[in-house]
Amino acid sequence: MATLKHIAIKNKSYAFPLRYLTYQYDEKTNAPVLDDSKHMVLREEYLIDSIGVSSPSTFQTECESWNLQCNKNQTVNEIKLHHYIISFDPKDRELGLTLEKVQSIGMEIANKFFDGCQALICSHPDGHNKSGNMHVHIVVNSLRKEAIQKTDFIERDSECIAGAKIRASKLSMNAMRQEIMDITQREKLNQVDLMNPPEENITEREYRKTKREQDMLDAQNAEIEKEGIVPAKKEFQTEKEKIRRAVKRIIHKASDEEEFKKMLAEEGIEVTESRGRWGYKTASLYKPIRGRQLGTAYEKEYILGQLGSVGIIQDTNQYYGRLKKSIQVQNAINAADTMQFFVKSGLTGTDDLLARLKIAEDEYNRLQEQKNLLWGKLNQTNRLIHCTGSYLVNKRYYNAWKQTPKEQREEYEIKFSAELANYRKANEDLDVACAEYGLMKIPNLDALKIEKKQLMEDLETIESASAEHKQSLDEMNNLINNYNKLLAPDIMIETKNHETKKDNSLGL
User: Fold this and answer.
1) CA-CA distance, 135 to 130, in Å (whole number)?
2) How far apart are CA 502 and CA 505, in angstroms?
3) What is the pTM of this model?
4) Which residues, in sequence order, are bridge partners of residue 139?
5) Which of 106-120, 273-287, 376-390 has the lowest mean pLDDT?
6) How far apart are CA 90 and CA 136, in angstroms?
7) CB–CB of 261/272 below 8 Å?
């Protein structure tokens, strides 16, 4: 089954795609694999071609030259590259799929959908975690190189002009999905319906984050277990996964929409609605996650359709018996883990834990403020690097223009009009930036790059510490909830029973 993924790239260098496609990178850290001599290691097998450039090796220089000529793709927030990945079912090997055939399919797609663009097409024989799925990467400069005739999958006439930005619109993505399905059918390969969204939608970013965080959690738990302490948290879940699991549990318990929302709210999940579509928001989320981002099984229409069919399950005593037993066992496990943590940590009750929670919250808030300050400094440094770099790159054209005899200046200005325009704009931008940041002279570019590197290292350290404190806060809140739900009620019942016996002994 062939699948299609799209990634919009903003901040990567134009040299990065060729390195990533032809050299080995660590799957967990995304860092290049180095040999004993600290040199990057080539991939064992790949096929690479290009369209719109002389060769794959000139992709960087030709893209950057064209961007500079059009004065586009020069700011941080612009989409510089569109990265498409077409992956095939590992079982397609048995149907005669070869790396050469994958590359030819990639070229066919690129020539049809990216005519007039600068692109790299590279096929690899294996996928993530050695899954065996052959796949092809198509990396496209977001600035069209040559004008083309408008096609059915291009929404705007303006996208067909040379120097225009291309978009990965819904229309073009659907057309590409349909084309891939047609090709796999033609080649008699395995295929699923790409036109209809899946019931469970887990993105590549979410999958990789879950795996990365789980590996880190496992390593931390291994250290904790060496000291004889039972870890409070053994499984990492993204906010999306927490919502999915809560919905799956509650959809078989709630009988109507109101009860469904109420039960989700009890688990800290708010159901929002906008234009008839549901979203889900937790305390950790800045804005709600739309149901369709989680999959079709989490949208309003699907859930309301399922709520009406849960009566049969709820009336089954056997189901309730198994559910009750499962809940009792899990509650006992949670209670034991909670008590063990209290004993190991020397806590006498929730008061001590709340005191620690307050300290952890204050530290987390301090780290967040520090992180925001670093981001502000990093944005300032990036802006100065961009302005200074553009100024220095184009200054030589301005200096040459000044040294050109007056009778030849007009001809020079026509020949290097783009470079001179870029210099004047960069000069203006640099003046504005220096005035805004209180600088009296043009900053040193090398010093700015060193400062940026240090800021990024500091930011990485702060973000790592912030993530650890956030995890610690979540664990403490879970412990408080477990204590209140599982242990405190038992203590209250025992106290009440003791008081009743005392009253009875007094004849009351």
Assistant:
1) 12
2) 5
3) 0.51
4) 83, 120
5) 376-390
6) 13
7) no
